[in-house]
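Appendix B. Chain record.
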Amino acid sequence: MSKISIVEVGPRDGLQSEPEILPTDSKVAFIEKAIDAGIRRLEVASFVHPKLVPQMADAEALIEKLPQRDDVSYIGLIMNERGLDRALTTAIHEIGMVVVASDTYNRKNQNVGTDESVAAWRAIGARAKENGLRANVMISSAFGCPYEGVVEVERVVELAKQVTELEPAELGIADSIGVAVPAQVTDLLGRVQEVIGGIPLRCHFHNTRNTGLANAFAAVEAGVTYLDASIGGIGGCPFAPAATGNVPTDDLLYMLERSGIETGVSLDKIMDISRWLEEQLGRGVPALLPKAGGFPTGQAA
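Structure tokens predicted for this chain:
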């Protein structure tokens, strides 16, 4: 794999788990800076009830203020038909829906069982396509659940069969609580690829247990096309205990670039955004590259 596309999830998955609620204009600035750095697909909002995730309460207002460019695509997270109704009133380009691999976590996250979410995805995905939107689905908690423990590979493979019957633009596989290790990633992705045909794969890893970058590289070697990452490594999941640590875009870019894999994204600009985020949030971010800097250029004796 000589090229990987980064999906920047900081504006949504990053900010939704932070205690601070950034003003809409600050979120717009965040997204514009990411675009300037070379990011071309971004998760920008979640159409969930504001009482559940107040950090995303301004979804419609935010999208209205975003620059519309032919080479940039904005993704909105959808949980149910009501969320899609809201999304359809905006200029969002893609919708993404989550189906959790474990039933208990799905009920915590979406107030319904996994089977009900699969059925909802079929209805939502079909409606989104009819309205000209790119429709994606992600199987989350694919490597482990905070409530049920181990998630069997066969469970994820069966869900992959079910959700790809609608032929989404891509299928996502997420390690929502950061428990996976590279060998699991290789095994699971190989099994999933056997049943989904040519549908592109996207992976979303958390660095909760310091394996996120290793898992991302395993996904690259397995042929994944898209990798999610969050500038500065901000965020996690508000519905899973201790699910901190999105893979930092900064650290991921360094690993990919030094491995000869193109992304089209400027590491220097991403590190600058992380430092700007620290000012906005009033504290440091988890990413290491803004602290250490890129590869040393050497100094004259």
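Further analysis of this model is presented in Appendix C.
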